[in-house]
Amino acid sequence: MKRLLHALIFAAAFGAGTAQAVDVKAPAAPKGEQVWFVEDHTLPMIAMTAALPAGSAYDPAAKPGLAAFAASLLDEGAGKLNSTQYQTALSNRAIRLSVTPDRDWLIVSLVTLTDNAKDAFQLLGLALSRPRFDAEAINRVRAQTLSGLAQEDEDPATVAAKGFYRAFFHDHPYGHPIDGTPQSVAAIGAGDLKGFAASHWVRDNVKIAVAGDVDEKTLAGLLDAAFGALPARPAPQLPQVGRLGQPGVQVIAMPVPQPTAVFGLPGLLRSDPDFIPGYVANHILGGGGFSSRLMGEVREKRGLTYDVDTSLDAYRKAGVVVGQVATRADGMRQTIDVIRQTFADYAANGPTDKELADAKTYLTGSFPLAFGSNVGITGQLNAFQRVGLPVDYVQKRNALIDAVTADDVKRVAARLFNPARLTIVVGGSLEAAKAQAARPAKLGTLKPPAGGAASKTAPHS
Amino acid sequence: MGGSVEFSKATVAAALIALAWSVPVHAQDTKVFQFALQNGMQVVVVPDHRAPIVTQMLWYRVGSVDDPPGLSGMAHFFEHMMFRGTASVPNDQFAQTVARNGGEENAFTSHDYTCFYEQIAKDRLKLMMQLDADRMVNLDLSDPNVNTERAVVLEERRMRTDNDPQALMHEQMEAALHLSHPYGRPVIGWPEEIRHIGRLEARDFYLHHYAPNNAILVVAGDVTAEEVRADAEATYEKVPARALVPRAEFAQPPRLGETRLAVARPDVKVPVFNRLYRVVSYTGAKPGEAEALEVLAQLMGGDATSIFYKELVVKRRLASDAGASYEGYARDAGEFGVYAVPRPGVRLDVLEQAVDAIIKSYTVAPPSAADLERAKTQLVADATYQRDSQYSFASAYGQALVIGLTADDVEDWPQRIRAVTGESVQQAAIHDLLKREAVTGILTPAPAQRS
Q: Does residue B76 fall inside a structural domain?
């Protein structure tokens, strides 16, 4: 058995065609929205993920948190239904409607049984086109948001992340917390919310992905019920970004046993020709879980952390490489040194042939896993839609990754991973590390993060 | 293969029983297949032909209840050790091999079980089986591995528990709720006891608990039962059964009164009211009792139409959030939990009185027909939505079988939920939500101490 095992372990290779199992259609939508659709009648359910360009980057400078506040009220009453009546209408039919604001987009996820599809899409349409913004709901959601913001201050990872985006994006609206601040949330009123919805919940640039038990003709009617009543006005523009980053280490003091650092540097727009080589390059550095350089250096060789990772995030107006690490109270200074050194080595020397080959077989071979469920399909397709990719990208994507060369990755690694440009924000303390930074490191580690459901992994690029 | 090669009598009997129920069962329009290997390993196949991928889950009947005295966290620690390599797949080659083949993998540990899983292209299923069969008996437990993994687990504990006051509070409430039963020990372990885990203890744990006759294999995905059987026979069936140490039967003495835990800490920013009730689980309940608790949790605090939300959050404005949940998948006691976060300025004792008044209301009258119907509709729909994810659907079978339930129990669940009556919900509130079987936790901010 031993020999067979070895033969199989080292014979792994995927063709570029592996991902072609899914047939994505792009039917003409009733009013011109972009719709991607996978028809599958196995289960009596339909999933949809839709995005409107109404994320927190559209917040007015004086009112951070407005887009998220408005989004939180989307399922809090519409038309003749007050909040409880609207929620009861959803619940009676087991319709799952969730609303998530990110920096660029308002992301709406809808899951329904086929039998209730008509009601589900109509209820969403009512919420998008005739939201009520009742005083009771506004005050209740405000109290919930304020409570949530206060609880976030307990968590060093969230505190560090907020500090990082603020430092990295300076005054651009990408820099403020998506949910705003206690001061800004307290000052947002009904007029602000109604105004934002009227100007930003529009049909222009809406991206819709649907999968499940519905045919194209029925779907057209459902989508018209959900999105047809949105105003046809053009979506507002986002401001251009200016200077990115604030190299150095900032500490936000917190009394925690395990400080957390969020670190990053300028990345790539999705339209950049280097994006796919950059995606592969980041996978090797910090995106690939146990196979990544950072995991090897920080965790396996030195035992400084349970988890360290980086991702290459493409917003509409800026790219950022952002990473996170947590370590014991006396380990942060050494951890930061190791991360900087790992960036420097990689930027100077690029990947090994084995690292590149392994990254490519993982990234291409794992791509079909994203298409295993209706909910997973719509999440992955909508992620592609949001960054402006064409529908045939699903079929072409693995070939693009296979075409990446060692020279490509080396060039992009040198372009991206200059440690002198790292902005680092720590929630916790550096001081305990000062006295013990010279202590020799002995510990190594190996084990993937426990407990997470694989279905929750981030979408592929 | 190292380790014991003896078949115990119990193992052979288990295998025969398992073979006897090797019949297909129906889950709506999906056929689920079950069979057993000669070494006693149970196999469940859940076909899902929507995409050319598979999810393999290996559920072992070992969890933190099996931690040796003074070594809490052993089962979870051992879950980590299962990734540390064997003679033929050394060091980090397990994870590297799965990744190189385009797979995702992970594992988790609970009080009753430990589960390892991979999701991967269907033509790699046999390779995954070879890897998991190999580490079932050939693990390298040399000293450096044990020492280094212990440090990682302590780092994991800091991240999940020590950094989070709500997690610390929950850990203490569990410890108080279960008296001497090991459900009161944290799965990840107490830090002092994690530090006592050594190579010999790990070796014993491995020999006593990791064996094909202590595992349930669930494969969901684009495969047939015949394919899974052939691959499992070529891999797992080559691993001999081992004599297992019987699991301890722990007492669950009646509690004599409510326990109250008041914790004030400077790292808390928002006060929280929590209560845990020790209640029956699906394995110990009378017919319909656990299902009634499931419906009660949904009615009380399952969503924004629940009574907690409508009364405490919307109408009376005492709380910014409130909810309830029932955890019934356990070999011993289940848990029913309620929580509420007060709005600023609302006293926690006022909030608690309002919570208690609502709980009491379910003991004096059954829920309205409309509320009952809505709660049941939500729960039954969950069973359909769960089938959308191979991981969730496979987990439903694994989690049920590993605690002693059957595949029929999984498939009948929607019908049993539909059969819940208002009277049975009222009876569950009367007989299961007993104050003496509860721990109430009050977590509040405290001013920072001067250093």
A: yes
Q: Whole-angstrom Cα distance, residue B180 to residue B166?
A: 23
Domain that holds residue B408: 259-445
If asked whether residues B201 and B282 sit together in one domain, one would say no
Statement to judge: residues B202 and B292 lie in one domain: no
Last residue of one domain, picked from the residues A198, A227, A256: A227
Show the low-confidence residues of chain B (pLDDT under 70).
1-30, 449-451
| Pair (A71, A211) in one structural domain | yes
Distances (CA, A) of B307 to B183, B231, B379: 30, 51, 16
CATH code, domain carrying B47: 3.30.830.10
pLDDT digits (tens, 9 = 90+) for B241-296: 999 989 999 999 999 999 999 999 999 999 999 999 999 999 999 999 999 999 99
Report the number of distinct structural domains present in chain A.
2
Q: Is residue B245 domain-resident? A: no
Interface test with A, best of B100, B101, B111, B343 (most A CBs within 10 A): B100
**Residue A447 clears pLDDT 60, i.e. is over it:** no
With a pLDDT cut of 90, the percent of chain A lying above it is 82
Banded pLDDT at A21 (limits 50, 70, 90): low
Enumerate the residues of chain B whose CB falls inside 8 A of the CB of residue A92.
373-374, 377
pLDDT score, position B252: 95
CB A295 within 8 Å of CB A433? no
Give the tokens for residue B150.
């212990």
Count Cβ atoms below 10 Å from residue A380 Cβ, excluding itself.
22
Q: Is residue A82 part of a domain?
A: yes
**CA angle, residues B120, B121, B125, in degrees to nearest 5:** 75
Q: Do A22 and B51 touch (CB under 8 A)?
A: yes
Task: Give φ, ψ of B122 to 5 degrees.
Answer: -65, -25
Nearest to A446 among B83, B126, B127 (CB): B83
User: Are residue B232 and residue B301 in the same domain, yes or no?
Assistant: no
Could you read off the pLDDT of A345-369 as tens digits, one per residue? 999 999 999 999 999 999 999 999 9
* Closest approach of B155 to chain A, Cα-based (Å): 6
- In terms of domains, do A129 and A213 share one? yes
ipTM surpasses 0.85: yes
Number of CB atoms found within 10 A of residue B390's CB: 30
pTM of the model: 0.91
CATH number at residue A436: 3.30.830.10
pLDDT in tens, B189-235: 999 999 999 999 999 999 999 999 999 999 999 999 999 999 999 99
Closest to B376 in 3D by CA, of B291, B309, B447: B291
Is B273 part of a structural domain of the chain?
Answer: yes
Which residues in chain A have their CB less than 8 angstroms from residue B152's CB? 299, 303, 306, 443, 445-447
Rounded Cα gap, residues A43 and A41, in angstroms? 6
B100, A88: Cβ pair inside 8 Å? Answer: no
What range defines the domain where residue A403 resides? 248-449
Q: Do B384 and A444 lie within an 8 Å CB cutoff?
A: no
Residues B309 and B173 in one domain: no
Q: Would you call B152 and A447 a contact, using CB atoms and an 8 Å cutoff?
A: yes
- pLDDT at residue A303 greater than cutoff 90: no
* H helix or E strand, kind and range, residue B362: helix B348-364
Same domain? For B204 and B268 the reply is no
Domain count, chain B: 2
